[in-house]
Amino acid sequence: MEPQGGIRQRTDSCRRLFVARLSRPDLPARLDWLEDRLGEFNLWSVGIKADSTGRASLDHRVRTRPDIREVICDLLDGLCEALEASEEDGRPLSAI
């Protein structure tokens, strides 16, 4: 899945993938590790307003800096890809 749209949409995609990974019945013993990563992701996204809309949102604040927007989107896309790959092939969560 290649997230489309802006930073907010990509942030939502990453969060959904974290939650999906956490809800797996065969989740290995590293549940605490993944919950901590989700918590850190949530703190980042709320603190920087990556999942917000309007003038305070990260999308709005970087609208005139496509280079910065692209880097953030690429990082979020990479996180989504890593979470998906971990889900599909059972890679260890610490490999994310």
Any overview of this molecule?
The structure is a single chain. By secondary structure, this protein is mostly helical. The chain has one domain. Helices cover 64% and strands 0% of the residues. The two termini are 16 Å apart.
> Stretches where pLDDT falls below 50 for ≥5 residues?
none
Largest sheet: none
- Termini distance? 16 Å
Tell how many strands the DSSP assignment holds: 0
Percentage of helical residues?
A: 55-70%
What is the ordering of alpha helices and beta strands? HHHH
Coarse shape: elongated
Protein structure class: mainly alpha
Averaging pLDDT over every residue, what do you get?
A: 87
Task: Name some characteristics of this structure.
single chain; 96 residues; mainly alpha; 64% helix
Concise account of the structure shown:
This protein is mostly helical and 96 residues long. The protein contains four helices and no strands.
Write the layout of secondary structure elements.
Blueprint: H1 7-22, H2 31-47, H3 58-61, H4 66-89
Helix pairs in contact: 1-2, 1-4
